[in-house]
Amino acid sequence: MVKPIAYTTAALALASALTLAGPARAEEPMQVSGIDIVTQVESHVILAGDQAHSVGVDKYVGAVSSPGWFDSMQATFTATAWTDLKLGRSEAKGALFWRNSEGALIGSYVIKVAFTIDPKTNAPKGTLEGTWEIADGTDRFANVRGHGTVKGEFNGVNGIDHWSGTITGFDKRA
């Protein structure tokens, strides 16, 4: 009878050691927030026949950070936008891809944009507001899912966004 107790004790000790050594998964929702600093690097716009509306496809690159979650990631955003040039309004839907040496996050966003056109530079300047969602990840971020809101501003090809939301499934370091 001593052997089964000894084996059980050893198995429990090993299981406890493995639990302590492995990553702790945050099953509780984690509040996150951060900032994106981006530059538009590509844009393709088709004007409608009335010259007051357009559809466009854009690409942005930059950096994103979120204190307490990750220090810095390379950010790539793509967007398809429907724009009313007379009203200075646009709606965009797009994909986001963030990556660093620990993995990548993949998601989507939907935003509404209000803008004016600078008469001297012909560049847009304005604000944006919308929602984002993380749907997939790799490596350290493989189980992360989340959603939240974003607000930002842009001037020409440069923009800055402040975002916040909730994620689950983040592997914290033990």
Q: Which sequence of SSEs, written as H and E, runs from N to C?
A: HEEEEEEEEEE
CATH superfamily: SO1590-like
Q: Strand order of the main beta sheet, please? A: 2-3-4-5-6-7-8-9
Briefly, what CATH class?
A: Mainly Beta
Mean pLDDT: 87
Structural class: mainly beta
Q: Give me the CATH architecture, please.
A: Beta Barrel
Report, as a whole number of angstroms, the end-to-end distance: 37 Å
What ranges have pLDDT less than 50 throughout 5 or more consecutive residues?
Answer: 1-26
Taken from the alpha-carbon principal axes, the silhouette is elongated
Q: If helices are DSSP runs of H or I spanning 4 or more residues, what is the number of helices?
A: 1
User: Helix fraction?
Assistant: 10-25%
- Radius of gyration equals 22 Å
What is the domain total for the residues? 1
Instruction: Kindly report the oligomeric state of this protein.
Output: single chain
- Major sheet size, sense and barrel closure: 8 strands, antiparallel, barrel
Based on DSSP secondary structure assignment, what is the total number of beta strands?
A: 10
The name of the CATH topology is: AOC barrel-like
**Which percent range describes the beta-strand content?**
over 45%
